[in-house]
Specification:
Largest sheet: 6 strands, parallel
Oligomer: single chain
Distance between the termini: 21 Å
Number of helices: 13
Structural class: alpha/beta
Helix content: 25-40%
Radius of gyration: 22 Å
Length: 323
């Protein structure tokens, strides 16, 4: 079996368990910087292992005549042409759930950073203004996460992991999903009710035609004034211009983002040139929620199990293109 490998080679070697790959397989390492389509097609691969940020186009899918599987290294797959893969009979799969605990921790980190005004206070301490920072906190009071109603949009593996951690903090938790989450102890609200009632709104949805740009001016106008928005899902679900406007006029009390659109983030991103007062209400991280060591060990466990299944003529797990 030939595998075109489009992921970071050092991570590949570090997190793949010894003996996980059959000795007679051929691995063609192409790097994770979106190699030219012709170079991918020239591998004549039976399977592709791709970083979620590497596109896999219809040209590549149709050009690889023996292709059986496109496997995401992570959870994302929105840059893979799912319809072309489906038409070609090529399974497309991800590592759903493997990063749930890691991304949940990142969501909690962003919530706490904003509630505790971490960046603003840290900057003041570095500037030897500790007492001034502390006095501001005395005068205004900081908010505990346990005193917040947190609304989760999406109750998949990451949403559930986030809810479990919020419960430990004592937060009131509710969620919105298209369907009732089986076995979920938290109440399901309509989307409008969740917007209206939540102090913090945390996004845990995939990118699809229904979710792209869902956090718009209209959605923000339905939220509590001063609510905090957290996005550890995908940048495309947030209208960044709308968020910028809402930060500047006070409709949003803060935003915590681990994802952007496009990525890599560009200098003209509307959230990178905020005035200082608005910048204090922002916590940003470089899309690192799911790249813990624990997540990578789980990813590569799923990846090689799926590759072996397909090589033996069996179905992989976590199919995302409807085959």
């Amino acid at each position: 079996m030939k595998v075109a490998v489009m992921v970071n080679k050092a991570n590949f070697e570090r997190y793949t368990a010894p003996g996980a790959i059959p000795a007679d397989w051929e691995l063609i390492h192409l790097g994770n910087s979106a190699p030219y389509e012709e170079k991918i097609i020239a591998t004549d691969a039976d399977a592709i292992l791709a970083d979620p940020m590497c596109p896999v186009s219809a040209n590549v899918i149709n050009g690889l005549k023996h292709l059986k599987l496109i496997q995401s290294q992570g959870v994302g797959y929105n840059l893979f042409d799912l319809e072309a893969a489906r038409k070609a009979g090529v399974f497309t799969a991800n590592c759903a759930g493997a990063n749930a605990s890691a991304v949940a921790e990142q969501a909690i980190l962003l919530m706490l950073a904003l509630l505790k005004k971490f960046r603003e206070n840290e900057d003041m301490v570095f500037d030897a203004r500790q007492i001034e920072a502390k006095t501001r906190c005395f005068e205004n009071g900081l908010t505990e996460l346990g005193d917040c109603h947190v609304g989760l949009i999406g109750m998949g593996a990451i949403g559930r992991a986030t809810a479990a951690r919020l419960k430990a903090f004592g937060s009131q938790v509710s969620y919105y999903g298209r369907h009732e989450a089986e076995g979920c102890e938290f109440p399901r609200l309509s989307l409008d009710a969740l917007y209206a009632q939540s102090d913090i709104i945390s996004l845990h949805v995939p990118v699809n035609p229904e979710t792209v740009g869902m956090i718009s001016d209209s959605a923000i106008n339905k939220m509590k004034r001063g609510a905090i928005l957290i996005n550890t899902a995908r940048g495309e679900v947030v209208d960044q211009e709308a968020v910028r406007r809402a930060l500047l006029d006070g409709r949003l009390g803060g935003i915590g983002l681990d994802t952007f659109s496009p990525e890599p983030v560009t200098r003209d991103n509307p959230l990178l040139a905020l005035p200082l007062e608005a910048r204090k209400k922002v916590a940003l991280s470089p899309h690192i929620g799911g790249i813990t060591a624990g997540s990578f060990y789980r990813y590569f466990g799923i990846i090689w199990q799926n590759m072996i299944r397909v090589s033996e003529g069996r179905r992989p797990v976590n199919i995302v293109n409807g085959l």
